Every structure is written in structure tokens, then in C-alpha cells.
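Hi W., the zinc ion complex you wanted:
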Amino acid sequence: MRFILLTLLLFVSTTATAADMADVIYSGGDILTMRGPAPEYVESLAVKDGRIVFAGPLVDARTFIGPGTKAVNLGGKTLLPGFIDTHGHFVYFGKNLVDANLFGCADVAELVARMKKQAERTPADGWIVGFGYQARGMKEGRPPTSAELDQVAADRPVMVVDSSGHLGAANAAAFKAAGITADTPDPTGGQFARGPDGKSLLGPMEETALNAVRSKRPPFTGELAARAITGAADVWASHGQTTAMEAGLGLGNDDIGIVLHAIDEKLLPIDLYVAAKDSALDDTLAAAYSVASQYNPQAGGVVEKLRAARPDLDRRYVNRVRLGGVKFWLDGSLDTAWFTQPYTENPPGKTGAFAGYRQIPDEVLDGVFEKYWPTELQIHMHMNGDAAADQALTAIAKAVQKHGMRDHRPVFVHATWLRIDQIEKIRACGAVPSFLTAGIIPGGDAVVKLWGPERSAGAMAARTFLRSGLPFTFSHDAPVSPVPSILALVDAGVNRLSGSGKVVGPDERIPPYDALRAVTATAAYQLKEEQSKGTLEPGKLADLVILDRNPLKVEPTTIKDIVVVETIKEGRTVYSR
Ligand SMILES: [Zn+2]
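Structure:
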């Protein structure tokens, strides 16, 4: 009987029908499946209809070859699962791309020249906006004036914002469009630069004064909205990502419209996981439900009923967009992280036993868990200090007590400094941290000074998590990191080199394979998409990246220099060098 079965199987597998024939078979290079705790290579990978149908020896892949099958020889390059972004700001990044790039402007003349080019590609009713200059870095040592910006276009609103995002300048047409006149008083927490009369507007503006003008900019719609999405998608794909994240949809008041436009026009070549910002939550959810009903033929407008019947509705991708979570901020960044113990050296302007800031009251966070713990929407919480992690863990414990343990996988965004006792609680509640390893180069030296030796050495405790058998991921937080490079943050997790070249926390360095898991297999797990993504296995999506070298076989400090050759989303090339 056993013999007969075996013969039958052999017969079936050697007579591939048209249904089994692969579209593409890859071989001729390192094919790293990313499955399991140690590197596993296969000789070949077969893809059909956007899914992996086979991963194994080349001799067995032959059964999937038909007349239409394309054989791709990797020529010694390395094939991996497509990278997954676990904390980035895709939409925000895309909107910045639409504006003129003013980084590195040497003087006002260069700034004006770049802005003139921007004027040409801006629709007639849009504002002409640029981003990224530094007043200190320009020959004049000051921001441009209203009169200088009039050289770009005197009859259209022109606005520039510096690289910090806190300072800027506008021309008269922009002030007029924003309803700001010489008689408008300065808002609290900001000011407009004024002439000798103390009233007339000179152009430069700071903080809340800048926001008063910026907030009057017309929302991105149509072509501009499309350009933000496709621009960001091109950049993400060029860094090997087949899944992107917008971890705070609603930072801009036109974000929802931009994403809905992307769904309607099918603009996205890669997946976009969205976590809605707290204050924009209701609007985002309403929009998501209306999209869900629009794209589900059975919905008939009865969205709530449908949700009750199909609790996974928010989990599927509609034209490559999925609402996967909600986002809350519990503390600040490295100068304002909320700790149980004071800073080792106070950040500039802080005195006494400064220990950072709490962002939201406990009751608010408890309310969040009351509302979302029982749903499929994951709760993402920004936290850098251990007091913020305590707040999150306490809220989770209350939710578990009331509603029971669920497979919720709360996301601890950054989770930069955790105490050992917190790590065991994280195990118990199934939370997954996403470490901002991309921040080690720009912020590592400051963290050593401000947070002291213990907290800096134990920050982003990847090795500790690995040893404890706990999942963790790595993220870039672009545009906080100016480039959404996955290989750069893998490199940072492996080497932990600061800007000055010091190793920050040598004991938390991890091997390259484990760092790659943090942006593939574990990243898929974090987003609850491990059934379809993260490893090269039959049945999973053919989300792939081809690299010019194998990260496991290069000198570890050169991982960031590896080149993405091609990115493939569900069998389709979305980036090619
Ligand atoms: Zn962020």
C-alpha cells in the first residue's frame, strides 16, 4: 500500500499539468529562505501567479517547468524575502517628496533657482513649497525674505520650510492666502519677522507662526496626492521593501484623502500597512469602513453588520492598502524620553532631576485598550523610556484581566530602553518591539551622554531579546531617517556604530542573519502577516528582493553598502536597478 501511494505521488509530480507550471524559476545564486533560527538555502525557487509554489533542489523544480516558464539565473546574486517596513511614515515622506528639495542650498540665489523649477511643476492653484534648507548653512546666514521669494512667483503663494521643520518663510501671496496681515498678532509660541514699523511682514516665521501659514496650504488632491504616493513607493521599493508602513496616518489633515485616492486609482505597487494617529482615528476608521464596503460586493452599506460577521475585514488589503492598527505616543524622543530614573546629563535647557515627559494620562491609554484590545486593530505605542513602557504594560495587564489574553501583538515602537523585569512582562503579553536601529548613527553619541552608560549600552536590547527567544524587529522611521534604507538599519543592528565611530552597547550586537530576520520573518509576524509574508515557502506571496551580495558573506560593516538589484512584489518587478 505504501509502495503504491509513493508511486502515485511520483507519477503526479513528474507529469506537471498546465496548472502547476511556474511563471518563473530562480536559481544560480544564494536563495535564503529566512525560515528558522539558522540560515537555510535552497537551490531554486518557483513562482506562479504571484505566489511561491516551490522552494528546493533544482532537480525537483524541473517538474514546474512548462513552455511558458522563464528561467532566471541569479548570476551569483542573493535572493531573499522582500523587506518589510515595521515603522516608517510613508505618506508623510511622500508629501515631502512633492515639495522642492532644498537640502544643501549654498545661498538664497540657489534656493530661488530650485524653487523656480518647483513652480514649473506645481499646478496653477497649488502653493509652491520647498523643504530642507538650513539658514546657518547658507552664505547669507539667514532665511530668505518675502521679497526674495517673490522672485519665484510674486502672484502665487510661495513657502519654504527649513530642515528642522520648525522655521520657514513665505511671500506676500502666501500670507494673503493664509489670511495673515500686518495687523495679525504673533501666536503664542511663535513669531513673524517684522519690519522697522513693528508690523509689516518680512517673510521669516517661527514655530506656531509657521504652522499658522502652513496649515492653510490647500490639501493634496488629484495629481499632487498621486505624486506623494507613487514617489514614496518608488523610494521604498528601491530599498527592497515590498511592504511599507504609514505609522501615524492623520499627521496631515489631507492624509486620509491621499490614501483613499491611492486605493481608488490603484496607485500602489507595494503593500501599505496603515496605523491611524489617535486624533485622526475616527475619521480614518470611518474612511476605512466606507472603503471596505465599497470594495466588498456583499456589503451593501451594512458595514457594521459586516464587521460583526467578518472581524477580519480590516485585515485584508484593498488595492494594496490595509488599516492594521492605531498609533499613540507615550513619550518624547531622546531629549524627552520618559524614564523612571532622571537623565544622567540633563538635555539643553533642563534643570533638576529631569526624567522626561509623559504624553497621555493613564485613563486615556486605558480607554484605548478598552476600545481596541478586543478588535483586530493592533495598538502601536511610541515609547523610548522605561516609564512609558511601564504605562503600556499596566494598560495591557488591565485589558487582559478584563477581556482575557488575545493574540493582539501590541507594537512597542522604539522601546529603546527597557528594564529586565519589563522584558518578562513583554513575553507574557506578546508585545513586539520595533527598535529604531537607524537612529544609532545620528543619535548614539548623544544617548551615551544623556542616558548614561547602563541605559545606552542596554538600549535596543536585540541580543537580550534574541537570547530570551522573544521576537523583535528593526525600523527606520523615515523621514526621521532621511532615507528608508533597510540594509542600513540591518547594518546598524549588527555593528551599533555611532556617528563618531564608537560601538554603543557591544553586548546587544546581533549576527547578520538575526538582523535580517528582524526585517523579514519577524517583521511579518509583527504585522500579523506571517501566513503570507516574511519567508520563502510554498504558498506565500512572491515578495522578493535580489541583492548584489549576500549580507551573511560580506564584512559586517559593509552590509549597508550592499546594492538592491531588483524588488519583486507578488511576482511583478517593482524596482530594477
Ligand atoms: Zn515614527
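The longest strand covers residues 24-32.

W.
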